[in-house]
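Cross-check.
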Amino acid sequence: MKLHFSKIYSFACGKTTFRRDHSQIGGLGYSRVVLCNEPDGSEAEFRYYADNSVRSTKYTVATFLPKSLFEQFRRVANFYFLVAGILAFTKLAPYTAVSAVFPLCIIIGGTMLKEGIEDWRRKKQDIKVNNRRVMFHRGDGIFEYTEWKNLRVGNIVKIKKDEFFPADLLLLSSSYEDAVCYVETMNLDGETNLKLKQGLDVTSSLNEDFKFRNFKAAVKCEDPNANLYSFVGSMEFEEQKYALSPQQLLLRDSKLRNTDYIFGAVIFTGHDTKVIQNATDPPSKRSKIEKKMDKIIYFLFCVLFLIAFVGSILFGIATKHDLDNGRMKRWYLRPDDSAIFFDPKRSTAAGIFHFLTALMLYSFFIPISLYFSIEIVKILQSIFINQDIHMYYEEADRPARARTSNLNEELGQVDTILSDKTGTLTCNSMEFIKCSIAGVAYGRGVTEVEQAIGRSYSSPIIHEHVNRLKSDEIRESLDRKVPIKGFNFIDERIMNGNWVNEPHADVIQKFFRLLAVCHTAVPEVDEDTGKVSYEAESPDEAAFVIASREVGFKFYKRTQTSLSMYELDPVSGDEVERMYKLLNVLEFNSSRKRMSVIVKDEEGRILLLCKGADSVMFERLAKNGREFEEKTLEHVHEYADAGLRTLILAYRELDEEEYKEFDNKFSEVKNLVTIDRETLIEEVSDKIERNLFLLGATAVEDKLQNGVPDCIDKLAQARIKIWVLTGDKMETAINIGFSCRLLRQGMKQIIIHLEIPEIQALEKVGDKMAIAKASRESVHRQISEGAKLLSASIGTSQQAFALIIDGKSLTYALEDNIKNMFLELATRCASVICCRSSPKQKALVTRLVKSGTGKTTLAIGDGANDVGMLQEAHVGVGISGAEGMQAVMSSDIAIAQFRYLERLLLVHGHWCYRRMSSMICYFFYKNITFGFTLFLYEVYASFSGQSAYNDWFLSLYSVFFSSLPVIALGVLDQDVSAKYCLKFPILYQEGVQNVLFSWRRILTWMLNGFISAIMIFFFCTKAMEVQAFDEEGRTAGKDMLGATMYTCVVWVVNLQMALTLRYFTLIQHIFIWGSVAFWHLFLLVYGVMPPSISRNTYKVFIETLAPSPSFWIVTFFVVISTLIPYFSYSVIQMWFFPMYHEMVQWMRYEGKTNDPEIL
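Predicted model, tokenized:
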């Protein structure tokens, strides 16, 4: 049987008209013309539309080289080395051009190779997408397959069930006669619920291939834009014009579901499609360490320019006095017959040229491989995060995924976590657990919040009550045998048909009928077992339909105009079939906060069935429909205290005239395509949803995810502040806070709200200006009182405080003149809960904390409403949960469960912060050690611009002889194991307080570099200056001195690395000792090469250094002596001023780690 669905979703699927709309078509922004089934028509010839291929790559073959080079040389350090490399081709260079350019080419080439590989992966993904196949109309009613990239505007395509739409399509027809289809838009907006789309009536008959043989139509519509939810256009078909709306547009990358096939005309292709137009790069985020590193680079540039400037002045003065009355001081420079570089008569010019030479010579102060090494390390760190088996969620087959590697170390510095609740702390898997019907509370289940409160108060009465209820629950669940997802309701008064014996059995019947009828769920009947399952738009809705089914009101069939169900007849006791004619559906949205259906029952009565939030429902009750209001309200508050989500159920009966008047108005406004269409629909709906009769309230539980309380407890021990931003009622949020240990017994609560008599009195009057003024003053006063309470408690008690604020108050608290007071109060509290928060408020609160505190913030959420918050925070963590992938797609890191945040921060965050801090400090240390020896030698050589080392020694220092150990440090080092990171969360404070990358620590490492350079230089020069170097009595020359100093530098920086490491692996041993061995091997091999290649190093090692005991004795003595200051400093610090990780290391060493109170 073919179904007509056109009246099911009458709220959403209106048939558009031209009255009051579409006047802008043909104007600016609405100029697109599409000839359907004529992609090669005359219109296509003079209008160029994008093809359907997409490209997400950063580069093309033609642009890769120039763009990639531009990206590399935007970094000031790389640009500096480029200039130095160019100057190396002049006579100013203190080394050969090849040796200067080689390391730059290695580093830039390596980075470009990485960029190229990443872009090639994107290219392969593009090729895969562009080569997907789809059926298109070739002509004469014949459809055949082609690649997506070949589609053109105007093509007719046929999409089958579970296939993706290859472009933005105009829905013409489907396997249903009235051209409706189900669409899944998870790739677009992250929502997993199905959307219903409907084509025009005039094209609904085109549901066979052959019917497109002579099909022709012209579409005029809006130009390509990024708005996913709007579409304005018209279609001219058979000399008639028809209005088009978003209901007829199928967006690229959506999927066809629950529909055998559809036919559509291609409207937007490739980069003109809405999903591609809507794709924007996430905000560029850089870690604090990386930003600080840039400042250090600039600082070193200043040092470099300073010493080059001072050296050039001294050189100029010395040059000027080289020739004094015909007497030559530096006779070896021949000042009487010298080039401009050493001419005493042109000493100013000589000083300027020396300045340029010095800038090139001292360039080794700047670590050329730093940026490249950091990128490699961050990628490897991200791989470790992705591969961590302890953050793999087996049930959903979802590992952790670092979507960007830029922020790894930021995970170790988080001061404040801002978290969503539903789907993040909880499962977003609703269970129907309690209800209030006709003022009577039903449901004996125990919620997690009630259990947590029982544990917290340690009350024997509460314990006895909870245990009794749990035993009843276990007994009934055993009777039920198989647990039912979405249903945890236990009450013998209702179940098994016993409700017919209740005093208000008629109200109970209406209550569950309403649950079985007032929804948009689609039933799916298993033909083999006869079991009915439901495809619902939300977990709440699914829970309601399942609950009505389990009680005995089984909704099993939906047709074009009716709903069918089986229910128990209280008179006969038999199961009977009921059918309700579906007249209208007034859908739920965030502003209405309610949903209604209008149906006609078998007796001809027209019923309006409504369910919604208590904040909008009680005011809509009729005077004679409030019989159960007091008791229901009391139960709703009790349910909120138990952490449950509640909805109010009510109904009314409509007479024929009233319904006809409403239906005419409703049909009129829903068929408009104007800016105010939604507002008009809401106005019409609001008038009919009045004078309702209260039936009762539902209560569903959204259970906490596994491990959430323990995770929050550990994060609190790490002194991380946790804010929860939720849309729930204040009572619900507070009790969820207790169950997840965000709030603890004894914690003083500061509650800011506007549910006070003065405001309520003004709301009844309706003076908006007066309400706003009074609300603003009230919020200001409550914040001031909270601050005084906190100040008064300082020094008198160690009591912790929690701040709870509702959405209305938050609106005023975020205003410019109050927000700083609010932030100061909130940051002094241990926990903060913002209730009834909108998505915009979540983002604004995140921005306030981020900018106001200056400390690292982390936002975590799972839904599209959390995207703004995730992008605003320093680090955004997306939960890949039940609300789709929108949060994940906007996040920096994705995890499957909230509990994995504990390991992500306390283990990986701590390690990455420590590794990156130590790595960067060590980088600057090793380059200063090396670079300052060059400066000291130049001072020793009268600022002559002469290098102490061979050209290739200079070039290969940062590339081969000291780079691999530091990369191993950045990837593998651990101060303590993962187990101890979790056992002692206080370790995390090292990152929050930034003790490992403070200016003090950075300058200490730099000072260590200067000290090491001074000791190496003076020990080497003094040891080799006048003494005989070998048994033949020869003294050491410049080449031997340079090779000996270089050997000492390589040994010192690598052994310094060994002293710095806290966790040795085989890889680190290979890299450290391998770097030293490679230096000696290189010195040997390079030295035996012809003099034209090895230059002043020819056989220096094999003939002079290696055979001489002095070389080995000096090397040993200098290396040990140079390491003594750092070793002594480390011993004194560990003994007398230990940091957190050193305390843990001592405890592990002494076997005291079983004592949790040691810290």
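The first strand starts at residue 32 and ends at 36. The CA atoms of residues 619 and 690 lie 9 Å apart. Passed to J.P. for a second look.
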